[in-house]
Structure formats: structure tokens, C-alpha cells
Amino acid sequence: MKKLLISPSKMALAEQESQIYQNILKQAADISLNLMAVKVEHHPEDFLGWAYELLDVTTERLNFDLLEPTQLPTVKKLQTQLKDAISFLQLKTLRIAPWPVICAYLEQNKERVLLDEHLSLAEHIASIKSTPLQEMSKEDRLAFIGKHTAAHDPAVYRFDVEFFAGIKNNKAFAQILDDQPQAVEAALAHIPLTDEVNLEHYQAFVLAYLQLFTGSDDKPTLAPATRLLAMRRPDVFTPITNAKSDALCAALNIAKLNNRDFERYWQDIVCTLARQPWFAMAQGDSEQEQRLVDIKALLPCLFYYFDKNAMEQSNYFKLLHKPKASPASTNSTARKRTKESAAMLVDRALAEEGIPEHIRAKRDSIISEVEKGRSVADTISLMRAIFG
């Protein structure tokens, strides 16, 4: 363990990495005796590999039974520091890596970063974003802004809608969208769906976005605004959150971004990323690469740290594997849907390959059951069990 802890001192670390290393060492000092009890056989020669190895030690191999209760916050902080370091180091590669390397990294790590699920979300948003927000179903509107609910039937929403910086903790904006979908749509309409997006387009959006909060006790912040922009134009805007923006700013070598600094977001995030070599040279030489080109401004989201259990933590995975409720419980607690919403969900599910025509012919019956709150997947499974 001692060899692992001191190995970065022999690496050629840049100033930022050196400071990160020193901060991690200070935290590790408080649990040094516990760390020394862990046997380490893998000694990475690079700082990123080192951070992953020490994180694995502190999460999987440390004997928590021997820790004092007062040491637990120290372990938690050390884990957070290591995850932030990993995010920073991975994001930093965006300053030097060419486009083929970016694509290769994502392909090699597709399971860890849940690439297919992220792409499914992006493609769903692409299929609905030309529809005005006020005309979308409530489930689609919430998918657009990144707020998960139990109504996001996994038979239709085969992804976690909160990927790409969702706004699950921003109740104020969710309420504004619920109350004023036309006004939010009017703000978004300043950003063209195709062709160039310039500073004037962005400034017009910001002005309209700020006006959404007139009379509200809550202040407009960047996070929900960048989510809206990123879903509108995933090839231009990168979504950010308060929790993760520091790592991105450090990786891009820019000052920390205030959560209300709309001017700097354009100059320091949007323009800085657009100047990166990989961003400028992005091209689709294959179908998979073209899918990445279409959402190239979202790709930094896939360079943050992902827990190895990220799949199980996905809201989509949790809903898909949710224990079946008893019929009595289902009838008493099911969330009823409008006929329009139920029809939308059913039509999308029936459009999938492999659905027999005689099941598609039961569309009205399926919609009726989904209106009552039964999931689309359960209803179709029931129909197939009955009718084959």
C-alpha cells in the first residue's frame, strides 16, 4: 500500500494533478493505518489508473469493521475526491484527443458509461423535439428536461431520462414547465433546430428564460437552462450541473463557473468546447460514429466518473426490474393516465419489431388497460399470454 500511495510522486504530474494528489494524501493520512492493512498488487504507472486503484481500495477492500465511526466521513470525502479526480483526468483528455480516439474510448467503455442507454435517450429526444412542449405528453416533457417519474414506462422509455444532467432536484423549474409550457417553448424557439447557432440566438433565449422566473421566489440558474439547450441542440450545447461543472471547468483550464453566469457559459463552455480539435473534426465514418456526431456536445457527460454499478443505479433499470405488485395493490395505487398519453405509449411499444400483428390488433384494449395505470410491458405480455 505504501508503494501505491507514494507512486504519483514519481510521476510527471502537472500542477493541477499535483495539487489533487496532495489533497488526496492529506485525506488519506487520517486513515493511513487502515489503508496499510490492505494488500495491493496492482501499481498503475499513470495517475488516472492510480486514482481508480485507490478508489477501489477505499470502496471494496478497506475493512470497514475496523474503522472508527469518526473516520467514516473521512473515507466518504476521500472517495469523493478520487471520483472528482477521475472525472477531471478523463475530461482533460478532451483537450488533446483527436476524434477517432474519443470514439474508440467510448466504444471500449460503452458498458461502463451506459453508452447505448445514453444514445437511446438522445434519439428519443431527437424524435420529439420538433413538437412544441405544450403539445407533448407530460412524460415526454419531463423526459425533455430530465425529470424521472414512475410514469416513464420502461417499455417505451428505454433509458434513464435523467442522463445528460437531468434536473430532478430543481422543483422550481419543473413547476414552471408544468404551468407555462408555452412560455418555455417560446424561449427555446430562439434556438434554431438546424444550421448555425450564434450568440444572438443564445442571448435571446437567455432573456426569455430569465423572464420565466418573474414573480418567482426562485432564482434562474444555469443547470435547467443548459439541459433545455442541450436537448434542443445536442451538437452545440453541453449540459452542466452544480455538482459536476467544477471538474469540467478544471479540465478545460477555465475558472469555476457561477451557477448564474449565463454569459460565461457561452464563452467558456460552448465556445471553448467548439474549439477543441476533436469537436471540429467530428465526422461519422460509420453509423455508430454518426450517432456520436449528432450529439457531440453531450459527449463530455460520458467522461465523468461512472460507478461500476451504474447500470443498476439507472432509473430505467430499476423500473424494468421493479418487483411485480399484487393485483389488489396495483388497482389501488396505479397512476392513471390520460387516453392521449396512454395511446402514445402503446403506439410506440407496438411499433417495435417482433410485435405480432394480432397483438397490434388489440391496440384499443391495450390502451384501455394502460389508461388505468397498468404498464405497457405488462399489458402486452398479458395479451401475448392470452392470445399467443
Characterize the structure shown.
Helix 2 runs antiparallel to helix 5, helix 4 runs antiparallel to helix 5 (72-92) and helix 10 packs antiparallel against helix 11 (199-211). The chain has helices spanning 2-6, 15-29, 32-36, 47-61, 72-92, 99-108, 115-128, 138-145, 171-179, 181-188, 199-211, 222-232, 245-251, 262-274, 277-281, 287-294, 310-313, 315-320, 327-333, 339-350, 357-360, 363-371, 376-387. The model is unreliable at 328-334 (pLDDT under 50). The protein is globular, with a radius of gyration of 23 Å. It has 388 residues and is an all-alpha fold. It has three domains: 2-94, no CATH class; 98-316, no CATH class; 327-387, no CATH class. This is Orphan protein. It comes from Pseudoalteromonas qingdaonensis.
Architecture blueprint of SSEs:
Layout: H1 2-6, H2 15-29, H3 32-36, H4 47-61, H5 72-92, H6 99-108, H7 115-128, H8 138-145, H9 171-179, H10 181-188, H11 199-211, H12 222-232, H13 245-251, H14 262-274, H15 277-281, H16 287-294, H17 310-313, H18 315-320, H19 327-333, H20 339-350, H21 357-360, H22 363-371, H23 376-387
Helix pairs in contact: 2-5, 4-5, 5-13, 9-10, 10-11, 20-22, 22-23
Features:
Orphan protein; globular; single chain; 23 helices; mainly alpha; 3 domains; about 400 residues
